[in-house]
């Protein structure tokens, strides 16, 4: 994990630098990888020692800022606060991951119940599934759509009966209307 340290109004000694690196690198127990890095800003304002940590995990950024009379104490407070934020985010990620796994498992179970690929006979195999919105039409409008769009089969929602109907041309060229009876 890359850790960049910036010192404002103080001299960054090796001891302070190694202490900050040691403390901040503990936070990598929550997230690790190439896209994890931290920027630590140490500053002094009058008697206050301020530590600000910006911790980046991919597209996420966590920011903490603490102050104390002692620089080491402000680093400890900031790291504690950062770990709390990272722990909370990790828990949220676990919960979302469990929900997504459960949803994916449910979806897979639904797909396993029926699979188009499991149909061996090419005469009964469904090669394509088309989904579309049913438009409410009168029978005359549906016949016009059948002719204008050049479809062999046209499914529509009959405005008069409020049921799904199908139009198709038979081999003699005449139009057949299918009305389901339930």
TrEMBL record:
<dbReference type="InterPro" id="IPR032528">
    <property type="entry name" value="Ribosom_S30AE_C"/>
</dbReference>
<protein>
    <recommendedName>
        <fullName>Ribosome hibernation promoting factor</fullName>
    </recommendedName>
</protein>
<keyword id="KW-0810">Translation regulation</keyword>
<dbReference type="GO" id="GO:0043024">
    <property type="term" value="F:ribosomal small subunit binding"/>
</dbReference>
<comment type="subunit">
    <text>Associates exclusively with 100S ribosomes, which are dimers of 70S ribosomes.</text>
</comment>
<keyword id="KW-0687">Ribonucleoprotein</keyword>
<dbReference type="InterPro" id="IPR036567">
    <property type="entry name" value="RHF-like"/>
</dbReference>
<dbReference type="InterPro" id="IPR003489">
    <property type="entry name" value="RHF/RaiA"/>
</dbReference>
<dbReference type="Pfam" id="PF16321">
    <property type="entry name" value="Ribosom_S30AE_C"/>
</dbReference>
<dbReference type="InterPro" id="IPR038416">
    <property type="entry name" value="Ribosom_S30AE_C_sf"/>
</dbReference>
<dbReference type="Pfam" id="PF02482">
    <property type="entry name" value="Ribosomal_S30AE"/>
</dbReference>
<dbReference type="InterPro" id="IPR050574">
    <property type="entry name" value="HPF/YfiA_ribosome-assoc"/>
</dbReference>
<keyword id="KW-0689">Ribosomal protein</keyword>
<dbReference type="GO" id="GO:0022627">
    <property type="term" value="C:cytosolic small ribosomal subunit"/>
</dbReference>
<feature type="domain" description="Sigma 54 modulation/S30EA ribosomal protein C-terminal">
    <location>
        <begin position="124"/>
        <end position="175"/>
    </location>
</feature>
<dbReference type="GO" id="GO:0045900">
    <property type="term" value="P:negative regulation of translational elongation"/>
</dbReference>
């Amino acid at each position: 994990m890359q850790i960049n340290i910036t010192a404002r109004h103080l001299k960054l000694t090796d001891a302070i630098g190694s202490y900050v690196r040691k403390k901040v690198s503990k936070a990598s127990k929550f997230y690790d990888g190439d896209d994890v890095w931290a920027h630590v800003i140490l500053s002094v304002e009058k008697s206050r020692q301020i530590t600000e940590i910006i911790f980046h995990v991919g597209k996420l950024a966590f920011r903490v800022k603490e102050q104390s009379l002692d620089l080491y104490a402000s680093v400890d407070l900031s790291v504690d606060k950062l770990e709390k934020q990272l722990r909370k985010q990790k828990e949220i990620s676990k919960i979302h991951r469990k929900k997504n796994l459960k949803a994916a498992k449910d979806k897979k179970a639904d797909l396993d119940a029926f699979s188009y690929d499991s149909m061996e006979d090419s005469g009964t195999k469904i090669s394509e599934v088309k989904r579309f919105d049913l438009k409410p039409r009168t029978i005359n409008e549906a016949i016009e759509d059948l002719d204008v769009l050049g479809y062999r089969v046209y499914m529509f929602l009959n405005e008069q009966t409020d049921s799904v109907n199908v139009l198709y041309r038979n081999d003699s060229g005449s139009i057949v209307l299918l009305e389901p009876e339930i």
